[in-house]
Amino acid sequence: xxxxxxxxxxxxxxxxxxxxxTERAELITQVYQQNPGFTSAPMRRALAFQYLMEHKMIxxxxxxxxxxxxxxxxKATPTYPELCCHSLQDLDILNGREKIPFxxxxxxxxxxxxxxxxxxxxxxxxxxxxxxxxxxxKAAYEAGIFxxxxxxxxxGHTVLDDKIYRKxxxxxxxxxxxxxxxxxxxxDPQAYAKEQxxxxxxxxxxxxxxxxxxxxxxxxxxxxxxxxxxxxxxxxRIAEFCTHVPAHAPRDFWEALQYYWFVHLGVTTxxxxxDAFCPGHLDRHLLPxxxxxxxxxxxxxxxxxxxxxxxRSLAEELLxxxxxxxxxxxxxxxxxxxxxxxxxxxxxxQINTGGIMEDGADGVNEVTYLLLDVIEEMRLxxxxxxIQVSKKNPDRFVKRAARIIRTGFGQPSVFNADLIVQELxxxxxxxxxxxxxxxxxxxxxxxxxKESYILTGYFNMxxxxxxxxxxxxxxxxxxxxxxxxxxxxxxESFEEFFAQLERFxxxx
Length: 508
Hints:
Strand content: 5-15%
Strand order of the largest sheet: 6-7-8-9
Number of helices: 20
Largest sheet: 4 strands, parallel
Shape: globular
CATH architecture of the largest domain: Alpha-Beta Barrel
Radius of gyration: 25 Å
Distance between the termini: 54 Å
Number of strands: 12
Number of domains: 2
CATH class of the largest domain: Alpha Beta
C-alpha cells in the first residue's frame, strides 16, 4: 500500500523538471580559487568536500521521512567542472534535447559564462587528459572509435558492504587515527603520502557529520514552525536521527536508511561517479534493524512499541520514501558528443536482493519480500533492482519476483547468483567476498565493499568495420585515421577481410 504522503512525494518526483544547477560548480570554483594547489591532491579534494558539505543548500521537503538532496531541490542536478567543464554550446544542447533535456535558465548560463568557464578553461581533468594525448589519438576520438576514458566521470560502479551499519563516522575517524599513529616515516617511503590520504579521509568523515547536523538544525527550525502535531513530531525525530547518524552507527531501521542516504549524497556530491553508486544487498543489511524493530526496540518516539503489523507498515513507508530519494537524482549531464547523442536520467543505482550469504546459506529473508513489495508499488525508474537467484533460494522468492516482472514494469532484473560467485572466484576473489558480491550498474559484477569496477571507455567496433571497408579513411570526414587495409573490393574472401578487421582492432 502507498500512503497519501508517499503518493504525494512520488507525484512530486515524477513531475519535477530536471534542471542544471550551478550551485556545486560555483562552490567548487570558490574552493579552487582560494586554494592554488600547494596542498596534496587528497587534502585538496577533502577540503573541497568539506566546503561543499558546509555551504550547499539544505533541503527538507514537505512530508519527507528520509532527507537530503544532491542539489538544492529534487531533480536539480549539479555539475562537476573540475572533471569536465560544460561549454555554452553544451548547455544549449542539454536545454534543447527533445527527449532527455536538462533545463538551463538564463541565470545558470550567465554563471557559466562569467564564472565557471573562465576559471576552469584548460584546468579540468578532461583538459589535462587531452593535453597528454597524441594527435592520432584525438583524431580517433573525434571519429568516434572510442569515448569516455574517464574523461567525464570519477570511478563509479562502487557498491557498499555492511561497514556503515556497524560503525559511525566517529568510529572510522578513530580507525584512521590509529593508522596515522602506526606510520613508519623512517622506513616507509610512502608514509607521507599515506598520511595525506588518511588525514583527507578524516576530514571527509567529519564533513559528512556536519552535513547531517545541518539537516538536524533545519529540521528543528521547521518543527518549531509546524502547526500539525504529527508532522512536528516527525521533524523532531528527523532532527534526532540526523544528530546521531552518520556520526554513530544506526540504532534502528529508520536511522540505517538515513545513514546510507547521507553516504550516498556524500559520495555522489564529492565527484561524479556516474555510473553507479549502489547500496548492494540492502535486504541483508537491513535485516538486523528490521528484526530489532519487530521486538519494539527502536527509537521512534511514541512509536517505540508498535505492533508487528504497524512496524512493517512504517518500514514499508520508509523504504518507499527511500526509493523516491533515488528517483530525485538524475545522472549528471554530459559534455560534447556524449551530451548530444547519449541522453539518460538514469544513474544506475542498483539494489540487490536474495543471493547467497557469506556462509553459503540462502540469502532471502523477510526484508527481501518487503523490498519486492516496494519495487512493485513504487514503479520508479530509480533505483533499479535485481534478484540474485541461487539454487539455495526458495521457489516462493522467484515466483514473487516473476509476478512483478510480468506486469511489464521492467524490474527486477534477474541474475544467476551461483554463476556470479564462480566468476568472481575465477577472478581471484575469496569465496566469502564473492558471495557478498553481486551485480551493479548496467551491469557489472564485483566484490561489494572491496573494489570499484572502473569504466575504461567505450570501444566502437562498427566504426572499426567502417574504417576497414574504407582503407582507413573516415567516411564522414574523409580523414585518414586508421591502417591502410586495401581496397575491400580486392579482398578475395571473408577470411581475408576479417583478418584485416582483427589487425585494425588490435592496433586500436
